[in-house]
Amino acid sequence: MVLVTGGTGLVGAHLLIHLLEKGENVRALYRNLDNTHKTKALFSLYKKEALYDSIQWIQGDILDIPTLENAFQGIEQVYHCAAMISFDPKEEDLVRKINIEGTANIVNFCLSKNVKKLCHVSSIAALGDLPEHESIITEETEWNPEKPHSDYAISKYGAEMEIWRGLQEGLEVVVVNPGVIIGPGFWNQGSGELFTKVKNGLAFYTKGLTGFVAISDVVSIMHQLMKSPIHGERFTLISQNIIFQDFLYSIADALKVKRPKYHATPLMMNILSKLDWVASNVFGQKRQLSKASARSSYTTDLYSNEKIKNALNITFIDVHNYIKEITNL
């Protein structure tokens, strides 16, 4: 049997559909029963309602050892998708606790229960920092602790350290580092918020550059890696490196709404970040634009996907076409 953590999130929910379509016996963790409704709605969106009842749901938390004891009974493979994504400095401790300590717990149970293989969902945020003489980030680019990183990036890097510890202790592992993941059904979180904001009339764009990937590619690659003899490796999962302006334009065109009109310069983003800090500290509002988020909006990072393409001989879905596809679901 296969265990999926984070089965009520974008990656985990899509992974559940994919695994069930491939005939896998699946157990999934949930913390709050209400969260499973989002996963059920996704199955309905894809007209896969009949598959949903095949999931063996079990209430648990990656920080709660007793519930993990129940979840790991009879498990042979684990897909660790659970994580907290936040760029709010006030949530730094919680982000690190969930992403690092939670991953350590998963690794420890995999070792103690003799799990055959673990697939960990990391992020391109956990990849390295380019030295001046290089231009493309790969799986081999070294992490530089002296460079600025978001709390989220640090937490995902720390989580990977736990995965490599598991490898050293005899656990077969693979790590995937997706870029910005695009997929339907979760329009109020992650990349889905960008679709919602554009639909509601987002006026500004930035000219930062990063890697994007379709969720269907992510879950398919994860399953292929788990079925393969490959282990002890990490793989960057991106389809294309895209300028944020072009990405937002593609969303607007697919939704048939106005494109964002104004260029938010780095200076403007930094000013907005400071105003956001004031609103958070004076009025107690949740941070919407942290310093790290502002910086990432105009950072231009190029990522290579050659390693995974060569390992599995795959062709990635074009992100711009995928945007059109999911807006019509």
Report on the structure:
Residues 2-229 form the NAD-dependent epimerase/dehydratase domain. This is Nucleoside-diphosphate-sugar epimerase. The structure is a single chain. The protein is of the alpha/beta class and 329 residues long. The protein has a domain at 2-183 and 211-240 and 303-318: NAD(P)-binding Rossmann-like Domain (Rossmann fold, 3-Layer(aba) Sandwich), CATH 3.40.50.720. Helices cover 45% and strands 15% of the residues. It has 13 helices and twelve strands. Strands 3-2-1-4-5-6-10 form a seven-stranded parallel sheet, sandwiched between helices. Helix 1 (10-21) links the parallel strand 1 and strand 2. The longest helix has 21 residues, at 92-112. The chain is globular, with a radius of gyration of 19 Å.
Write the layout of secondary structure elements.
Elements: E1 2-5, H1 10-21, E2 26-30, H2 36-45, H3 49-52, E3 56-59, H4 65-71, E4 77-80, H5 92-112, E5 117-121, H6 151-168, E6 173-178, E7 180-182, H7 192-199, E8 204-205, E9 209-214, H8 215-227, E10 233-237, E11 240-243, H9 244-255, E12 262-263, H10 266-283, H11 291-298, H12 306-312, H13 319-327
Parallel strand pairs: 1-2, 1-4, 2-3, 4-5, 5-6, 6-10, 7-9, 8-12
Antiparallel strand pairs: 9-11
Helix pairs in contact: 1-2, 1-8, 5-6, 7-9, 9-13, 10-11
Give the CA-based shape.
Answer: globular
What string gives the helices and strands in order?
EHEHHEHEHEHEEHEEHEEHEHHHH
- CATH architecture type of the domain at 2-183 and 211-240 and 303-318: 3-Layer(aba) Sandwich
Fraction of residues in helix: 40-55%
Please work out how many helical segments DSSP would assign. Answer: 13
The CATH class of the domain at 2-183 and 211-240 and 303-318 turns out to be: Alpha Beta
Q: Compute the gyration radius: what is it?
A: 19 Å
